[in-house]
Amino acid sequence: MAYQFVLFDRSEGVGLVTLNRPEQLNAFTLQMLEELLNVFKGMERDPEVRAIILTGAGKAFCGGEDFKARAQQETQAFESAPAPVAPPAYSYNPQPIVPPLPVTNPDYTPLNPGPPPSFQRSEPQDPFAPVYSQNPAPKAPETAVSTRPNSMHDLIRRSYSPLLLQIRRIRKPVIAAINGVAAGTGFGLALACDVRYASDNARFLEVSTRVGLMPGGGLAYLLPRLIGTSRAMELAFAGEEMTAGEARDLGLVSKVVTPESLLDEARKLALRLAKGPTRSIGLTKALMNESSQLSFEQALNMEAQLMEESSRTQDYREGLKAFLEKRAPNFKGS
C-alpha cells in the first residue's frame, strides 16, 4: 500500500516519516491524519524500527489544519444555517478519548501494512460507546479536516487526539526534525514528539486566535510544561511568531542547525538511540510523560514498577555482561 500524503522509509533501525503535502505547507486533511496514525501504529509493532524521525517535505514542517479549505466550506455552511448557540461557560463534560482500533493485519508494518482499516464515524448513544467502526466506507476526498461547523468536537476526538496520544505513548523515541514553519496543530504535532531539532529558518506560531479559535493539537497542555505558563499564554493569546533561536533559548528545541544539515543531525541522534536499549528508553519516556501528572510519591512508585520491567529485559542482561567484560554493549531492543 502506498500512502498519498505521508512518505515512510526504514533503514538501520530508524523510521523516517515525512509529511508530504509540500504545496499546502503539509497542512492536515482527514486522509493525511489517518495515514499518519496508520504509520505510527505500524512502527509500534515493527521490531526493525527502534527510533523515529518526523519531518515535512518542502519548506514547512506542518502548517496545521487546512484553514483555507475549512474557511470556504464552513462560511457557506454558516450562511445557510442558524446562528449557533454557545454552550454555558465551563460546561466541559469530559469523555474518554477512544484509542484507534488495531490495524486489520496482525503482521502489519508501514512497509507491509496489508488492508488498512476503514474508519467510519458512528453516533454512540452513550459516551463510552466506541466512536470508530471498521465497516466499509468510501474514502474521504482531500478536503479540510471538517465539513460541518458543529463537528469540531468529533474531529478532535476521532482524528487529532488518537494521533497525538499514539506519538506520546509509543515506547520508542520520536525526533521532530522541524524544517520550516510549524503552525497551529502542526506546532502541537512538534510538541508531542520527544526531542525537537530545528533548522535555523524554522518558525513556530499559534494561529488559531487569528480566526477566532483556541489552540488545538494538545498545545495548551504541552506548551506551558515546556516553556512556562506565562510565555505560553502570551504566544497563544497574541498569535506571535517564535524563531528557531528563540525556541532554543526557551528550551523548546534541543538544537538549531542549518537546513542542509537538519536531517543528518536528526539521523545521528536517531541512529544512536536505535542502537540503545529500546525497551528501557521507552519506559523512560513513559515515566517522564506521566510524571508531570503525579505526586512525587506516585512518581517514585511508578519508577519502581518500570525499573522492575526494565531489569527483566535481554538488553539489561547484555549491559551487565558488557560491563563485566569491559566492552561496548550490543543491545537488540528486547
UniProtKB/TrEMBL annotation:
Q: Which SUPFAM superfamilies match?
A: ClpP/crotonase
Family of the protein in this entry = Belongs to the enoyl-CoA hydratase/isomerase family.
Q: Return the protein name.
A: Enoyl-CoA hydratase
What PANTHER family is this protein classified in? Answer: ENOYL-COA HYDRATASE, IP11341P-RELATED
Source domain of life: Bacteria
Q: Where is the signal peptide?
A: none
Question: CDD domains this protein is in?
Answer: crotonase-like
Give TM segment ranges: none
Ranges for region Disordered: 102-148
Q: Which organism is it from?
A: Candidatus Chlorohelix allophototropha
GO MF terms here are: catalytic activity
Organism lineage reads as: Bacteria, Bacillati, Chloroflexota, Chloroflexia, Candidatus Chloroheliales
Q: Which Pfam families match?
A: ECH_1 (PF00378)
